[in-house]
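User: Teach me something about this protein's shape.
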Amino acid sequence: MKNHVRCLVCAALSLLFLQACSSALLVPKPKLDSPAHHVETGFKLMELEKYASAKREFKRAIELDPRFISSHVGLAIAFAYEGDYQKGLDSLETAKIQAGKKEDQRIVQVGVMRIFTIGDGSISPDWLNQVESAFQKAKEIDPESPDAYFYMGVAYRRSNRYDDALGQFIRVFEIGKGFVEAADREYTAIQRLKRYSSQ
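Assistant: First, the predicted structure itself:
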């Protein structure tokens, strides 16, 4: 009889242990519902040209923390990719107003660079001057900011200033803190284009 009771107690404890373990697995992890995670996911979705899904991620990040600057900048860029430049500029303006820290201000300036490059002449005929101005501001905040150099290179490539673009991508390589693979792809494509046009 005692063995039977012991077996029942062991079985009950085992079930409670299994239930506790399984319920722990179902608890949502806060990191997955953080502004940083949603922004990171949003930028990945933009690379896949899934702009509506990216916007949902950025909006969720804003719901969680309206002062998380990267979410407003990401939303602005997603709007620009969809051709809704006014909404993009409006989101960027919200980011500018809220950007207190230097790093947030730098992120906003890189966002300006990206939006004007995406929209090129559709936003403003002097779009490249706008990009260069934002680039200078971003550089003043952080002269070792690889994303600023990368997107300046993209803007120069888009305006057919290939040597200037190559110079920016080389600077990304020198800094070596990110965007190296993307800069390498751009650099290779421009070199190929220059070889083709010289034949």
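Now, about its shape. The two ends are 95 Å apart (CA to CA). The mean pLDDT is 88. If you'd like, I can walk through any region in more detail.
User: That's plenty for now, thanks!
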